[in-house]
Structures are given as structure tokens and as C-alpha cells.
């Protein structure tokens, strides 16, 4: 398990997801990710015999991959003991302590789960080790530009009413940081890209109710434990409505999906050229004169 700082209360995350299931889970983001991931995997011309889904909080992704015909045995890794249905094999484990032997998987996928891992670098390293050479990681995470409207409205309302802001929305990872983490974890050919989605609501309270049904409400370890004051909530709703309402009266909320892909290194993969292996000089390509070390550049003749 992680020995670094505790950012998220993961036991609370499990309780919030269980509550979302009781309320009637809202899965539109998961359904979108599942469809997009199946399409991305369809561009890879190969079959993955052994695959694991890390922490995706519904069966949408597993169903989509099973129907694609690209995946053989697919096991769900879930930190909670509850079962969504009986169509998939399941392992009770946490994304921060994977139970797989080194080089035992051809494919690892994850949908909207890794953003709540406390030790993301450690989790990526474990995934890399669990993959066979030329195995693939394909994951979707909530990105740092998500819910910026809600974050701004809450911060200003709390500053006005309570004299200071408390963390209300998780500090999701930045795209550039994720690219560096993939390289540090040892992935070859890492790619990080984003998909931004704007969803509109009749009111900010509708947005908050939907987040509750996603199991995506505040699980920060350093969150304020006291109940949200009514005056603060009302002021937040006013600020949100003033700044983020469209002409038709509906309010917008931004969700950013960050996609990660990377391969376990293998000799068949494209490799960078070794220094000195170029067959043509850069100066010839650019039509310039090459200047050796210590020589002063003069006017081009």
C-alpha cells in the first residue's frame, strides 16, 4: 500500500459509491468512456488474451470490451466486496496494491478510477510490472479542468461567508504531469490526450445531486468535516448562476477526461535512433553551412 501522503479517503470513496448505487447510479460519463475505449482498442490490430479492469465503478467498460472481440479473459479488480453482476470474474484488491504476478497480463484498462489513487506513480509502476512485454495500458481519468465552475463558485462563497475556502473539489492531475509519470513508470510510447465535455443543468443543485449519484462527492482527506452552511450553499448557487448560465437559462459544467496509453517495453517496438546513426546531415537538409565547435559563424556565401 502507499506510504506517501494521504490525499483521498478511500474507505469513504467505497461508501460513497455504494450510496450512489442505492440512489440509482448516474453512469453517463462511464458509458461514454466505455464506448470511446472500445473504439480506441479497435485501432490496435491484436488480441489480448489476459486483461484486467482496475477499479472501474460499473460494468459498462467490461461489457464494451467483451463485445469488441479484442479481449479474452477479463477480470475486474474491485476494492469493495459488493458485486455488480455475475458476468465477470472479480478480484477483491485495491488499485494501490495489485495482486498480479510480474508479466502476467496483456492488457490493463481503467475507467474513471485512477484519479482517486493516493500513490499514482506507484500504481503505474505496479501496472507496468504486471504487463507482459508489449502489453498495453489504456486508462481514462478525470482531469484537472473538471468542474472548474463549481470550484470557483464554492471558493468565493466560502471566502465571503466563512472567511476562508476549504477544499471541495479534488486536485485532479495535470496532463503534462501525467505524461512525465508514464515515462517515470517505464512505459514505452506513452500518449496522453484529453477530451472535454460540457454538460448543462437546470440548476447547480441538479449538478450536485448528479455528482452524488456518481459517487463523486468530496472524499478529500483534508476536507472540512462540519456540515455545509445553508448561507454558503445559497451564495455558491448565486455565484454559479451569475457566471455560468447560458442564454437559455441552463448552467454549464465542464468535465475533462484524460486518456493514458503506454506499452510495456519490447524489442519489436519503434526505438529512437542512436546518436550518430543519421544518414544525412541536418545542415544539408536545412541548406546551411555546418560550423564546427570553436569556429565563429560568418556570413553565408
Layout of SSEs?
Elements: H1 10-23, H2 28-42, E1 48-54, H3 60-68, E2 71-78, E3 89-92, E4 105-111, H4 120-130, E5 131-142, H5 148-162, H6 175-184, E6 188-201, H7 204-213, H8 230-243, E7 251-263, H9 282-286
Parallel strand pairs: 1-2, 1-4, 2-3, 4-5
Antiparallel strand pairs: 5-7, 6-7
Helix pairs in contact: 2-3, 5-8
Word description of this protein:
The chain has a domain at 10-144 and 172-203 and 255-267: Rossmann fold. The chain is of the alpha/beta class and 301 residues long. It has a seven-stranded mixed sheet with strand order 3-2-1-4-5-7-6, sandwiched between helices. The protein is built from nine helices and seven strands. The radius of gyration is 23 Å and the shape is globular. The chain starts with 9 loop residues before the first helix and ends in a 15-residue tail after the last helix. Strand 1, helix 3 (60-68) and strand 2 form a beta-alpha-beta unit.
Key features?
7 strands, seven-stranded mixed beta sheet, alpha/beta, 301 residues
Number of helices: 9
Q: What's the total number of strands?
A: 7
**SSE ordering:** HHEHEEEHEHHEHHEH
Percent helix:
25-40%
CATH superfamily (homologous) name of the domain at 10-144 and 172-203 and 255-267: Vaccinia Virus protein VP39
Strand-residue proportion: 15-25%
- Which regions have little confidence, pLDDT < 50, spanning 5+ residues? none
Which class best fits the helix and strand makeup?
alpha/beta
CATH class of the domain at 10-144 and 172-203 and 255-267: Alpha Beta
CATH topology of the domain at 10-144 and 172-203 and 255-267: Rossmann fold
The strands making up the biggest β-sheet line up spatially as 3-2-1-4-5-7-6
Radius of gyration: 23 Å
Distance between the termini: 66 Å
Give the biggest sheet. 7 strands, mixed
CATH architecture of the domain at 10-144 and 172-203 and 255-267: 3-Layer(aba) Sandwich
Characterize the overall form.
globular
Mean pLDDT: 84
Amino acid at each position: 500500500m502507499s506510504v506517501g501522503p494521504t490525499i483521498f479517503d478511500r474507505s469513504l470513496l467505497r461508501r460513497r459509491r455504494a450510496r450512489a448505487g442505492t440512489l440509482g447510479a448516474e453512469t453517463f460519463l462511464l458509458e461514454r468512456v466505455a464506448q470511446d475505449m472500445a473504439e480506441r482498442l479497435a485501432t490496435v490490430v491484436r488480441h489480448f488474451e489476459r486483461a484486467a479492469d482496475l477499479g472501474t465503478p460499473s460494468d459498462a467498460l467490461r461489457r464494451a470490451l467483451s463485445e469488441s472481440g479484442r479481449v479474452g479473459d477479463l477480470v475486474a479488480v474491485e476494492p469493495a466486496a459488493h458485486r455488480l453482476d455475475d458476468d465477470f470474474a472479480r478480484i477483491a484488491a485495491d488499485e494501490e496494491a495489485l495482486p498480479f504476478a510480474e508479466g502476467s497480463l496483456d492488457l490493463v484498462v481503467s475507467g474513471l478510477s485512477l484519479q482517486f489513487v493516493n500513490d499514482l506513480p506507484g500504481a503505474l509502476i505496479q501496472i507496468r510490472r504486471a504487463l507482459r512485454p508489449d502489453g498495453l495500458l489504456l486508462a481514462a481519468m478525470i482531469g484537472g479542468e473538471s468542474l472548474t465552475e463549481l470550484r470557483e463558485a464554492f471558493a468565493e462563497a466560502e471566502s465571503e461567508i466563512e472567511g476562508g475556502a476549504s477544499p471541495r473539489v479534488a486536485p485532479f492531475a495535470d496532463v503534462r504531469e501525467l505524461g512525465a509519470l508514464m515515462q517515470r513508470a517505464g512505459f514505452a510510447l506513452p500518449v496522453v490526450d484529453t477530451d472535454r465535455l460540457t454538460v448543462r443543468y437546470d440548476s447547480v443543485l441538479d449538478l450536485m445531486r448528479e455528482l452524488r449519484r456518481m459517487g463523486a462527492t468530496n472524499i478529500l482527506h483534508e476536507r472540512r468535516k462540519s456540515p455545509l452552511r445553508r448561507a454558503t450553499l445559497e451564495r455558491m448557487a448565486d455565484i454559479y448562476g451569475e457566471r455560468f448560465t447560458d442564454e437559455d437559462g441552463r448552467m454549464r459544467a465542464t468535465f475533462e477526461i484524460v486518456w493514458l496509453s503506454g506499452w510495456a517495453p519490447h524489442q519489436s517496438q519503434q526505438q529512437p535512433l542512436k546518436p550518430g546513426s543519421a544518414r544525412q546531415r541536418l545542415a544539408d537538409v536545412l541548406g546551411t553551412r555546418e560550423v564546427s565547435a570553436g569556429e565563429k559563424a560568418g556570413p553565408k556565401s
